[in-house]
Amino acid sequence: xxxxxxxxxxxxxxxxxxxxxxxxxxxxxxxxxxxxxxxxxxxxxxxxxxxxxxxxxxxxxxxxxxxxxxxxxxxxxxxxxxxxxxxxxxxxxxxxxxxxxxxxxxxxxxxxxxxxxxxxxxxxxxxxxxxxxxxxxxxxxxxxxxxxxxxxxxxxxxxxxxxxxxxxxxxxxxxxxxxxxxxxxxxxxxxxxxxxxxxxxxxxxxxxxxxxxxxxxxxxxxxxxxxxxxxxxxxxxxxxxxxxxxxxxxxxxxxxxxxxxxxxxxxxxxxxxxxxxxxxxxxxxxxxxxxxxxxxxxxxxxxxxxxxxxxxxxxxxxxxxxxxxxxxxxxxxxxxxxxxxxxxxxxxxxxxxxxxxxxxxxxxxxxxxxxxxxxxxxxxxxxxxxxxxxxxxxxxxxxxxxxxxxxxx
Length: 409
Description:
The chain has 16 helices and 10 strands. It has 409 residues and is of the alpha+beta class. A hairpin with a 4-residue loop joins strand 1 and strand 2.
């Protein structure tokens, strides 16, 4: 299959990593659905087309949602062999299996349950800021945007503070594998870190099976492996897979939401000044940041039958890359879509997907982002981007956010 010049030039991990938006604007206007040889997938860029695919799970399977964009190295596969086999989770499953795997998370992530823990989130956010405020500068990702959601996830799942570093390195490694252009040694090291995370979670799963506690791991074990007695290997593998994936997705995408929001606000200082004067706009600012710089820029789907998308014939079994980062800036959906505006009236976007696979942790992510911004407005109103700091983004198509964000005040 041959592609157009537009398709041939598409490189989401290279030329189009830092600023893909001019390319996506051109694609929406001239070739909104195109085949990418680089990804071996049809790339879908307009809001309405992405929306229709997400809302038709029978025609578009989620089984390949987070598939690698290239083959893994042999050393990586050898490292994986020391852990549990990859199993479907609530992101990478369809139909009844998806509903079964998603159900254990809904109670503690419902809006009412999230509201109840907001005071503890704010307390943690305030403590984090106070820990570095006197330094007059810091890397916001390392000191604030990453620790806040990771600590929140650890508390919900019942992960002990001493085990949080393993959870962080392992879950972050999972999102690097097969997406970032790592060296062979770097990729194998990431796989080993993820396997260490798997074994950590397996220990919690076995302990909660024997003695349940009031935490998410106990909920998931009880729901997905009801009954007593030792777990089978297959049960343990499924539990480890879904818990690792949910912890990782929850903290990484929320980290990126917070960091992307702060970066956008400080790159548009008039918007930061407005937010300082009108902190009641913080919820608006979060929604605008999710639209303007989606923490999940793309996701895959697979056609379960021959389908037509925007007049293009997509064959049965073909992969499609849904580009949230493009759809969220579709001019036919959002007036002046390329402008970051915290006063924009909130409207639906793909910051958390859509349809049956809408992010189960959306309420928690929004709450953490709102609290994180509000604490920064109150405690560090004079913060700015550090002069000379070059922001490098994660080399990934699955997640989008700065690796570091140096600020001063």
